[in-house]
Amino acid sequence: MRDASRIVATVLLLALPALAACAPKLPIDEGTLVIALPGSPTSIDPRLATDAYGEQILQMTHAFLIKRDAAGNPLADLAETWEERSPTEILFRLRKGARFHDGREVTSSDVRYTFEWILDPRNRSPHRATYDKILKIEAPDPHTVLFYLKEPFAPFLVGMARGIVPAGSGARGYTPVPGAGPYKVDDFQPDEAITLSRFDGYHGRSPAIAKVLVKFIPDSNVRFLELKKGSVNFVLNGVDPDLLPAALKNPNLVMEEEAGSNVSYLGFNLRDRILSDARVRRAIALAIDREAIVRTIWKGHADLAESILPSGFWAHAGGLPPLRHDFAEANRLLDLAGYRDPDGDGPKPRFTLTYKTSQNELRRRIAAVLQEQLRQAGIAVEVQSHEWGTFFSDIRKGNFQLYSLTWVGIADPDIFHYAFHSSQVPPEGANRGRYANPELDRLVEEGRRELSRSKRKEIYRKVQLLLFRDLPVFPLWVHRNLLLRDRQLAGFTLAPDEDYTSVKEMRIDRQVRGATGKTAP
Fold this sequence. Notes:
By secondary structure, the protein is α+β, with helices and mostly antiparallel strands.
């Protein structure tokens, strides 16, 4: 019997290499980075993209005239240098040898074309208002671009962080426009995935990872399961806080957490009969217990917000009165607005509102909590959950009463012009709630012309006080950035605004695992 046992043991030992060879290989074993996004982009054209998913893909596929660091300061990209010849004349000198994915060299004509296309009202670019102070653009030689402004414009350089497309490129719907970034698009299946490969002609350092697959996975449980089994190996802010402990039981996964700058908010339709009353909007804000949501749903991985500018931002107005949960005051304001509770503690509501959100599971859970909290104040809420494209389209069209979104990548307080100036109703801008206030219009226009940062800070303090009074949106919380990745992945820098630019710096470090595939000590 002993000999038989030895024979069986020997056979098993000999078979182990063969069994290992037969085990299915994971994408990381093949040298592929697989990213999961919670939604599909509505566009991956830098002239049209407005949602976070589109912007994050563009950060991998397109080169920008200039880039921005985490503090919003300009950095070189296609433009090596720039010079403000006067407050209304800015010159950019382009690097030589940068090429689009189709092989064409990037020239000043491409830069001029990109911005002139955005400015052409026939193209209905949502970014047109960002550049409406441009008077004309000249391209005196292939590597020099001159911008002439109608008047001094403080946010000008921040706005130049825009992906450049080849001259003559029309809008192609879901067909990608060539970029000049570190990765080129091999295949794009809307609502499913986009496949990228390293662009060997990239003007910067060539990416170490040759293949990137970005999957669009709205279901948080599916994202979690794919991450656990290794078919996804990189998820930034896409795993529900409830699932983090279970994910980290996998020894091949690690988590990184850093402070964020992206602010979620509750949006109101100010053209709605009920929500046009500022007392109702304030009552809704007071009926919401944000602290409870941060504690129970976010598990502490978020911080309360009082402005759409995060607290660390230079133009954030300190000392804004916090809107804390106050059920009694919410009821008093609703009574004052004429919406008295028809039956006291009975089931009849004061009124009914619809709340639109995406199919993201975490967003739906938050919607359910908001629904219950508002019910306690006598406000019935019907939650409508849609796939991302439909949801975002409805919000831009003004087809909502309540909704929630997150501002991503705010680099300048000129966001207040884009989001709240009365002229910035979509498609011109992002005034989705149709807010109109002549005093705010005057202030944000003044803030655009003022070049002194200290004076701009005072202007935007007044803007934030106005918004606190009128509440066209209710800031909810600032997300902390949570990255779950395979232990073998290294080199990604967590930026406050969820920027994906440093994907090109990533590498696969096979030293971190032992020969058995278990995590090395």
